Amino acid sequence: MTINSTEVDSAKLILARKKIRKEKWKTFFMTIGQNKAAAVGGVIILLYISLTLLAPILSPYDPYEINLPDKLHSPSMAHWMGTDDKGRDILSRILYGSRLSLGVGFSSVFFGAFFGITLGLVAGYYGKWVDTIISRCLDVMLAFPGILLALAIISALGPSLINVTIAVGVFSIPLFARIVRGSTMEVKKLEYIDAIRTLGANDFIIIFRHIFPNILSPIIVQGSLRLATAILSAAGLSFLGLGAQPPSPEWGAMLSSGRDFIFSAPYMAIFPGLMIAILVLGFNLFGDGLRDALDPRTKK
Amino acid sequence: MFLFILKRLVQIVPVILGVTLVVFLIMQMVPGDPAVIMAGEGASKETVNELRENLGLNRPLYEQYFSYVGNVFKGDLGNSLKNNQPVLDEIMIRLPITMELAFFSIMITIVLGLIAGIISAVRPYSFSDISVMVVALIGISLPSFWLGLLLMYVFSVKLQWLPVAGWDSTAHIILPAITLGAGGAAIVARMTRSSMLEVVGQDYIRTAKAKGLKGHVIIYKHALRNALIPVITVVGLQFGSLLGGTVLVESVFAINGLGRMIVDAIRTRDIPMVQGGVLVASLVFVFVNLLVDVMYKVFNKRIDLN
Amino acid sequence: MTNEIVLEVKNLKTHFISNKGTAKAVDGIDFVLRKGETMGIVGESGCGKSMTSLSILRLIPSPPGKIVDGQVLLKGQDLVTMSEEEIRKIRGNRISMIFQEPMTSLNPVIPVGEQIAEALRLHQGLSKKQAWDKSVEMIGLVGIPSPEKRAKQEPFQLSGGMRQRIMIAMALACTPEVLIADEPTTALDVTIQAQILEIMKDLQKKIGMGIIFITHDLGVVAEMCDQVGVMYAGQIVEHQDTKDLFKNPLHPYTQGLIGSLPKLYEDQEELQIIEGTVPSPYEYPEGCRFAERCPFATDICIQKQPNLIQYDENSKVRCWKYSDEWQDSLTKEGVAL
Amino acid sequence: MSNLLKEKSPLLKVSDLKQHFALKKEAIFQPKQVVKAVDGINFDLYPGETLSIVGESGCGKSTTGRSILRLDEPTDGDVLFKGESLLKMNKKELRNVRGNIQVIFQDPYASLNPRRTIRQMLEEAMAIQKVLPPNQREARMLELMKHVGLRPEYLERYPHEFSGGQRQRIGIARALAVNPEIIICDEAVSALDVSIQAQILNLLKKLQKDYDLTFLFISHDLSVVRHISDRVMVMYLGKVVEIADKSSLFNNPMHPYTKALLSAIPVIDETKRRERIILKGDVPSPINPPTGCRFHTRCPFATERCRQEEPLLREVDTNHSVACHFAEELLS
Amino acid sequence: GSSSKSEEKADNPTTTGDKSGGKLVVVRLSDATGLDPHFITDIPSANVVHGKVYETLLAFDKDRNFAPLLATEWNQVDDLTWDFTLREGVKFHDGTPFNAEAVKATFDRLLDPVTGSPQKDKLGMISEVIVKDDTHVTLKLATPYAPLLSILASSEGSILSPKMINETPDQLATHPVGTGPFVFDSWKSGQEITLNKNNDYWGEKVKVDSVVFKVVPEDATRLAMIESGEAHISDQVPVTEIERIENSDKMNLFRTDGLAVEYVGFNTTKAPFDNVKVRQAISYAIEREAIISGVYNNVGTLANVAMSPQVFGYSKDVKAYPYDVNKAKSLLKEAGYDKGIKVTLLTSDRKERINMAEVIQSQLKGIGVDVEIKVMEYGSYIKEIESGEHQMFISGWGNATGDGDYNQYNLFHSASVGAPGNNFYYQNPVVDKLIVQARVETDPSKRQEIYKQAMQIEMDDAVYVPIRNYEHLAVYNNKVENFRLDASNYLILNEVTVK
Ligand SMILES: Nc1ncnc2c1ncn2[C@@H]1O[C@H](COP(=O)(O)OP(=O)(O)OP(=O)(O)O)[C@@H](O)[C@H]1O
Ligand SMILES: Nc1ncnc2c1ncn2[C@@H]1O[C@H](COP(=O)(O)OP(=O)(O)OP(=O)(O)O)[C@@H](O)[C@H]1O
Ligand SMILES: [Mg+2]
Ligand SMILES: [Mg+2]
């Protein structure tokens, strides 16, 4: 084989490689796109994310500006969603609040996923006593009804959005860990893992290069469904007065302060409630769709 | 089976110990001196110190923990800091209420969920399927306390069909149970549907069809029983989040249950009460899980193979 | 072959229609099955064997599957156009099936005896007790010891071989006229396979049904069947009496298939191979579906699809080589054989 | 040929290998249950030969292969590779020596990581075993692809884009990438259609010649085994019941189980069909294997002795060993 | 059937027969912590028994004058001696007769250190209780103590059954036995407490048959219950619902001025609030009127000092700082903070207080003070202000006795720094001296004058910003009549009828 032809070959190869990469993404989006539910969910999520980014531009008023004489106006042309009990524009607050609510959702899930995945990988891969210890600890965590654990954590750390994030994150650790542990044990048994072991790979390579990428889809699915629950839990904690601190326009907190007006000024609770519900719906749709799209059984 | 249950019971012990330890540690981290809170506004330093001494709050941590665990195994969960009543008594007043609420909610979850799931699965992608699933998705997405307030507003205040709050008659159970069970019902519905659809694709369903069985026999005799297996697990897990959910629903509907008791106890730093409450809640949870595992085993004997 | 015809399949076509396109899984199958006769269908994975058998009883998953053309005549009665209610009465009663996977084809949560009895109650109107007794009898008939005990067990308590025997018992419980066996022994060990094949032969003698025996194992076909249809890409490419087929395979594909088998009692340095791969059912070539891999292919093979032509009395083949046009196409091209 | 082999020293020596799996205990008071998947087997593998292991499902074929590689830690016994004990090596030494023994697995779908391109797989294999300096690996990959009959641009593809036969070729390329001396083929062709199977079998034979490979070939398909092997080992319930040169075994099977096995194979050519020995019953469970000869429950010739006394593997003929008390008697 | 119908009736508290007075349902935020007046430290607990199960020697009337109750007459013999004549023919609910021995037993228990009552200090100046005869008792004081009567009229002064005290003192917490118009019936912890009409009451009997105190933690739920008639009275009303209540034809609102005040305090030892100019600047910058109307919906009145007008010692002449942003700015500049400051404002998690904090945050933004709000759940909040780590905080001071001493000594005396109540960490010898002086002064007008002086100094030092004098609210269903709240937020149920 002459040098020349190898060069030609590798040029071809690089091209081919690029094309493959592109197509990989394309097929991913195609599969998602084909699933209507996932597509709707994806659009909802994208919409929320753009709201988050565009809040300063879209908001008609300062979300923090208190204007007592204007309090509790029902929805009108000037205030599309009305004003709250301190005369702040609810629409503007909701727009700014999306940052917080999405932030809590994403960071708590990230937090839970990070520890959960690590624990799950280690327990699932090494098995035996390592697994026993980790699993028992997870059992303990699971034995707490989630919100009670969060409550206890928050009363220890004090109420704040960050602590809510941590608390909600903590109780999703065992959920991630269990899924990851299960999938790891499944994937561990597959022949390609044996193959890489017979090649002499060390545990690190096996776990992170070979097992982890192959259990991503249940993680992603779980992640997006957890996001929904996380946002609801955070709202629940805010409802109990343990969430975001005033005057932050976190939706759960808005909802919570709106509940006193549920009869006299229902719009104060309805709009943030709807925003939460739709976002949660979005993540649920997306997660479900993703599950269908990524499930090899439905693919074939 | 008996041995299996026994083994699982033995396994519960370390979990419960773990739970007590975690609660104990968390409560230690909680700021706020229970003695100060008990003494109330404007009490003098001496009073507070005296109280602290009486409550044993001056002893080293590990000592407090060990004496606590020792007492727990004797069935003594200590006395409430708030009203000095035995914690166990306080819990026993509320546990039946919460269990009743949980029971009715889980019934709603199961019955509604199964019916909806089967309706959907029988004719996938039909109008009825899609509408049931849309409702289910919405059900999952609504914050439960919000749903509770809305239901209360519509059915109790506006229509006056049902009582607003409390826990005195059957009518009182309806709204809280729906509020608490709705999310779970939606999840069970979706699980039933996907599980049914998966089972319907199985070889043995094809076998049943090849035998010439009627459609409904296939669905109820051959498919549903198998489809229920994963659903049982989901229901079991659902029970866990249900216990958590009682906190909110009990607040909204003024139900004197365990969940609200724990929240109140956390607020007032009534440490023995928190510890006892969480311990009991966890025990209930763990036992329900055991029950689910047993049912799972009964339904799915194939597990024995592995 | 003077026996009466029980089943006749004419131009059967089953397609899978989805947004990926149309997969022509079964694309024009014809054959005739007589009483007491066993017909084998062989072919490689994905060629449409299972779909053919499922189409006969209209059990293809639908959507996306659909029988788009053809007839399936059970003693002259067309199953394809029948109402769902009518065909239900035929399933498990006059035509039964045995599936490939004994592990998954039985309902895991129902005692096996009940699974057999169920069909008996339905089709033969037996009482609960009668059906159960008959079911126990059937389990004994397929050679499972202590049938009373086994009947009460659930599938997971039985070994693979036993489960497959239960499947056979279930299929034969209502003494069907036609038995379709879709790879009934593929999942089993050879020694167990031998047991099962023996039982099937015995029972056929007793009951006298016609059997459609689907497999990819040519050895099994040789031992079990009277006549064989070789399938390739959704079509039957060759149909002969079993003995003739192995003595004198006509179609190049059949020849390749037999050639690529390692021989049990002969030393070979290298195995004969068929180059290339099976075309996708979504886009079959216009001409002969085997042309791409065929060492004899000419232009006509690539351009036009051959028909299943009568080679001699008991043999049919789908190949231009045996047609009248063959010589013409060769001379035109000027290629010598 | 077999005499020649014996003069060489074995490349791999398996002695008294045992692999017992403890089953999960159901309850605390339940006695521990053990699956004796492989229960004391001995054999040698000589350089350049193909030794096949046959037997029914669950008899311990795969477990034997996995124990040799320490994919599962064996319970007892030893495996010597070129005189060095594989089982006594520490993790690091083992990783280094592993490149010498490779596996081709049964399931062409499960044996390739679906998230990695062929290039990544081959590159990684070479990198782990440091077979070549990085700049020469590209050329080596192209060469490997050619050897196993795949187009070079396929390097960039993912496994799902290949058919079963092509995947099996990829698995072979990956095994070859690290220049192994022994390749264990665990049902390497069982999942494939006959026409593809033939391609792969031919390829394996060719590669064996080209690279001077030694094969441990695990299969339950006796015609394939006969085609590819030099020697054949028959296993039953975790034990070796017969081991012999291919021709000797096929023409002159001594163990009743081997006989039954051979007779059960459906044969196309009627004239070559043997009288069928139909075995009664099912294979017993390896959890509580029968006493004495493990085959006695199904053996048509079983006697009281078979029930009591376990037959040892003994050389009955040149290069033909069998574990049956009555091998000689049955011959006649 | 008919039985189910009668059940329905029993369920519905509003259905009453001709003779029966019906069941009155009171819904409240939280349950009582205990029912032993010697241990009760919170109004919600005291509210259940005070004036209902237990009675005091004397009581406040509608106009907050002392009126006889269990004592028919009283008389201050000298600075340290008080004589009481007791009512005759009164019996405790357990049948024990009420007499001088009962009074002695009650106060002896309270004052006995072994009892460990947190209320001991309030009557700690009593050195001896002398029984003269069955109907006459004398209290001996260790030091002169002007506010004695007001404490005796509060819940702490309840007279307990001596039988209970001697035989089963542990049960007092859950089973109160007094002389009042209601007899304790049952307590379902966390759920409800039931009292029944005392048919043997010495005075005018109550109109209802029973009263049930139910725990309903959600504001919205309580209101819904009142509106639907499921409950009759709620004494915790969100100020934001006033309009709705007033517009409703099913609900009525009762308002009464309270004894408590609410204020924003400064930790005078913590920078920058150790600088009086900063404190003054903030005082100028808070627009208190906006808070009263915006946050409190005009419930309560603008406070000028940290003492309610209802409390003895109040003076309207001490003036709070007016709203003046310019002054505030210049004071800040003088203090050297013209580039702006960052401060934290601590509050407990009561909704109105959080709202107030938000408004203050927004107001102080105007003078370049960047406020970070720290909401803490009550327990942690208390701990925080008692540890002295806080800067600015919102707080309130109730006044069970209605006397200025309770206010000034606890809030501003240097002996009260930290836990007892001086969370300003304010130490001023002049103020200390004035407060002690007022304690022993028996001439009411002189006392008044002394308190005024002290309060003026505190105001000059800008220790706090007075915000609001409490107004107590209760909502009741329109089936209820003759209901009122007193200034200490006690429900007065003696005359209530349910239609
Ligand atoms: N649900 C489906 N959707 C689309 N195509 C399908 C579906 N089911 C089967 N097919 C197609 O039908 C063709 C025939 O499948 P069939 O199961 O009949 O093959 P087979 O000959 O039985 O193979 P095997 O030996 O593997 O059982 C396959 O090529 C497959 O692609
Ligand atoms: N990890 C394990 N734990 C418990 N038992 C095992 C394990 N691996 C294998 N076994 C058991 O060991 C026995 C031998 O298994 P092995 O896979 O070696 O059989 P095999 O001969 O390769 O069969 P097949 O032809 O089905 O692949 C079987 O009974 C199997 O169930
Ligand atoms: Mg098939
Ligand atoms: Mg194997």
TrEMBL record, chain A:
GO terms for cellular component: plasma membrane. Pfam families: BPD_transp_1, OppC_N. GO terms for biological process: transmembrane transport. It is a multi-pass membrane protein. The chain crosses the membrane at residues 37-58, 102-126, 133-154, 160-180, 225-244, 264-287. Residues 98-287 form the ABC transmembrane type-1 domain. Keywords: Cell membrane, Membrane, Transmembrane, Transmembrane helix, Transport. The keyword Ubl conjugation does not apply. Its main location: membrane. It is found in: Cell membrane. It comes from the Bacteria. Belongs to the binding-protein-dependent transport system permease family. This is ABC transporter permease subunit.
From TrEMBL, chain B:
Keywords: Cell membrane, Ion transport, Membrane, Nickel, Nickel transport, Transmembrane, Transmembrane helix, Transport. It holds the Pfam family BPD_transp_1. The keyword Lipid metabolism does not apply. It is a multi-pass membrane protein. GO terms for cellular component: plasma membrane. It is found in: Cell membrane. One of its GO terms (molecular function) is nickel cation transmembrane transporter activity. Residues 95-296 form the ABC transmembrane type-1 domain. The chain crosses the membrane at residues 12-30, 101-122, 134-157, 169-189, 227-253, 273-292. NCBIfam families: Opp2B (NF045470). This is Nickel import system permease protein NikB. It comes from Psychrobacillus glaciei. The lineage of its organism: Bacteria, Bacillati, Bacillota, Bacilli, Bacillales.
TrEMBL record, chain C:
CDD domains: ABC_NikE_OppD_transporters. GO terms for cellular component: plasma membrane. GO terms for biological process: peptide transport. Keywords: ATP-binding, Cell membrane, Membrane, Nucleotide-binding, Transport. It is found in: Cell membrane. Residues 7-258 form the ABC transporter domain. The keyword Ubl conjugation does not apply. It comes from the Bacteria. InterPro entries: AAA+_ATPase, ABC_Ni/Peptide_Import, ABC_transporter-like_ATP-bd, ABC_transporter-like_CS, Oligopep_ABC_C, P-loop_NTPase. Coiled coil: none annotated. GO terms for molecular function: ATP binding; ATP hydrolysis activity. It is a peripheral membrane protein. Belongs to the ABC transporter superfamily. This is ABC transporter ATP-binding protein.
TrEMBL record, chain D:
It comes from the Bacteria. The keyword Nucleotide-binding applies. PROSITE patterns: ABC_TRANSPORTER_1, ABC_TRANSPORTER_2. GO terms for molecular function: ATP binding; ATP hydrolysis activity. Residues 23-262 form the ABC transporter domain. Keywords: ATP-binding, Nucleotide-binding, Transport. The keyword Ligase does not apply. SMART domains: AAA. GO terms for biological process: peptide transport; transmembrane transport. InterPro entries: AAA+_ATPase, ABC_transp_ATP-bind, ABC_transporter-like_ATP-bd, ABC_transporter-like_CS, Oligopep_ABC_C, P-loop_NTPase. This is Dipeptide ABC transporter ATP-binding protein. It comes from Psychrobacillus glaciei.
